[in-house]
Write a structure and sequence with these properties.
Distance between the termini: 27 Å
CATH topology of the largest domain: Porin
Largest sheet: 8 strands, antiparallel, barrel
CATH architecture of the largest domain: Beta Barrel
Radius of gyration: 25 Å
Number of domains: 2
Strand order of the largest sheet: 2-3-4-5-6-8-9-10
Structural class: alpha+beta
Mean pLDDT: 86
Order of helices and strands: HHHHEEEEEEEEEEHH
Length: about 270
């Protein structure tokens, strides 16, 4: 269900929550003044959305689309636990906070597996994983875009497939400059913004990509320094996401006092 039929809002990474809330409150006021009937419907939709979220979080609301006493009490309790002004109403800040909490509970913990197949090193190599920056610990927000790198010696070619979303794949082609018993290195592959080269090590079972931005329009004002990333095991990303999801559950969900005793040390 949308935030409001009066006005949709941009995602929180584009505008801060306070600004979004002000825009939404302003849109509600304008709609109420212009078309009270439409505002009543929009208001009922927002209340129902809040009730659905609160029920999901364990506050026991019913789906009435009306701001009844049960919903008001649930809102006050949620607002107090969330550090929001305790109004007992479906104000813009509360509605946006409910939506962010729903997103936090839907965090995707699935990440691609890592494989380094060099069983036929003299003919071909295939590596799957995600790009990780050396020296940086992965966190819950680290990208886990699936990457497949395959090199064929007879063709003197490496192909890197980057899977965006689930139905969009970008292919980058690299000409092999060196292929010996321990290492494969390639010439550059030029994209719209950057130039990339690959280095594959048999001994370390690693794939390194060096990216250099050569189109200043892509990153104006930033130095065009080479960035080295390693195709690695996303296990750390999955662990960080699991930890973040567990923390979100503890923060958002309202458990009865008996839950932990009944579940013991199990995750709830």
């Amino acid at each position: 269900m949308s935030v409001s039929s009066a006005q949709s809002h941009p995602p929180s990474h584009i505008k801060d929550q306070e600004s979004i809330a002000r825009d939404l409150e302003r849109a509600w006021k304008e709609l109420k003044a212009k078309d009270p009937v439409a505002w009543e419907k929009d208001r009922a939709s927002s209340v129902l959305e809040a009730q659905e979220a609160l029920a999901q979080f364990g506050y026991g609301t019913l789906f009435t689309a009306a701001l009844d006493d049960r919903t008001k009490e649930a809102l006050r309790k949620y607002q107090d636990r969330s550090g929001l002004p305790v109004t007992g109403d479906v104000d813009a800040r509360t509605l946006l906070h409910l939506q962010d909490d729903q997103i936090a509970l839907q965090r995707d913990i699935l990440v691609p597996s890592y494989t380094f197949d060099d069983s036929s090193w003299n003919s071909w190599v295939s590596v799957r994983g995600v790009w990780l920056q050396p020296g940086k610990e992965p966190n819950a927000n680290t990208e886990a875009t699936p990457i497949l790198v395959q090199c064929v010696r007879s063709a003197r070619m490496c192909v890197m497939a980057t899977a965006h979303f689930r139905d969009y794949v970008v292919l980058d082609y690299f000409e092999v400059e060196r292929w010996d018993a321990s290492q494969i290195t390639t010439g550059p592959s030029d994209g719209i913004c950057d130039r990339q080269t690959l280095r594959i090590s048999k001994a370390d079972q690693t794939v390194l990509v060096t990216s250099t931005t050569y189109n200043s329009a892509c990153s104006p004002g930033l130095p065009n320094k080479p960035v080295i990333s390693r195709l690695g095991d996303p296990k750390g990303i999955r662990e960080a996401r699991l930890k973040a999801l567990s923390a979100a559950k503890d923060r958002i969900l309202l458990f009865s006092p008996e839950v932990k005793g009944r579940l013991g040390s199990q995750d709830h």
